[in-house]
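Objective 1b: paired records.
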Amino acid sequence: MNLLVLGVNYHTAPVAVRERLAFTPAEVPTALAMLSAEHGVSEAAIVSTCNRTELYCNTREPQQVLAWLASTRGHRIEDIEPHLYLLNGGDAASHAFRVASGLDSMVLGETQILGQLKDAERFAREAGTMGVLLNGVFQRAFSVAKEVRTQTRIGAASVSMAAASVRLAERLFPSVASCKVLFIGAGEMIDLCATHFHARGPKQITVANRTIERGEILAQKFGGEAILLSDLPSRLAEFDIVVTSTAAPLPIVGKGMVERALKERKHRPIFMVDLAVPRDVEEEVGNLSDIYLYTVDDLAEVVRQGQESRASEVESAEAIISERVGDFHRWVASRALVPTIRDLKDYADRIARHELEKAQKKLAAGENAEAVLAEFSRQMANKFMHAPLAALNNVLPEEQENTLATVRRLYRLHE
């Protein structure tokens, strides 16, 4: 078993690169089937969020996985390789544990990534690409994340992306209470953002979504209204603040749509936060006057403020992870012993079964039971000891010391 993690995240690549390597939820099942069909790849899972795309595999062919990622995303290897990280074994396990615990997140200690990892595990399990190794990694990652959050205060007072969005909006507008806010999408991130903005008492909250039913559920939660994405061109001009996070593969807010909205608003400014990867808002929109557009990368500095004070909590969390990586190493090593343990048990079972059949036949023939049991016991001992005794008698002189020490340890032959 060989654990490999190949990925890109906000540390190694800007959003313009990450969005080209991202997988939408609809793409993941097919992608998993294709990846696991690659030569040398026996297990696979895909984690794809706004901040990272990572492939978790059981493989000894890292270049095969790299070539697959480049091919399926439509890029040359040399174009994406500078942005990628490739981790093996214990380093890969440590990375998975840090990700699950929120230590590798833009928002230190955030909990959303844990749910995203659980989604990745579920997708892989349903696709049939989750085997013994990856199941062991993911289940341990979930356990480590719980331990870190229980034993440290790593997530205390963390500045979330949603809170950062509110902070930035309040730099542009005197008060969110005087603004009309539009949320595009109805997923977990939008729900979180809507909760933060709703706490500021905005003048109006509207949710735009592909399906009106799901949009209405979220809008009702905050006393707002729901509209369809198709209504955006005619309604965009109404809103002072726009927050978007969908799984759309292409931008849904274009430059032309925004230009028309600004003209209708007589160039009153619009504050936009695009939390989607791939991006929901065309990059050129950020060049328009009176538009203040922020992506997930633009929020990085805001969410880092105040995190230095939790350095001791990070240290405690890293210590827990280091210990659990050691446990993972021991578990992987024990899995390597399984075939030999199974063969040894089968060998013993065959001897016992054969000698038992011989004893039963003698008893059925009326032979003395005490004599049959004595012979049964002697034959069992002889058969079990034949292989190790033969090995000792044939051991080479230079191997004798190590072999004797191993045999004495296995059979507990203490001095």
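Objective 1b, second protein:
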Amino acid sequence: MDTRMSQLSKYELEMLVTKLNEQKRKAEQHGNMSEVEVIIRKIAIAQSYLVDTSRFETGRFYRIDGEEPRFELHFVNGVMGWGHFEGTVNEVAIPLALIREEEE
């Protein structure tokens, strides 16, 4: 049985990210883009376990990698930041590793 990411040490998470990046590279070489997308999501989740959650403030706007509209953070639950994008009302969960400080 596989160990959950939440049970891994920092070192083990870093090793997992390295392994996943290698898998992603191989999937890209074989042109398997759907597998690449799944691996990218796994990497984001694994990296989110390495993020210091205390750096996030509810009610603030952040940038999300690969997204144009800003993201307003409502709350953090585990390794996910919950909130909504500007111009929308639907609440979504974003892995913390993808949430960036808004550049002034």
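Strands lie at 61-64, 71-77, 80-85, 92-95, 99-101. The mean pLDDT is 93.
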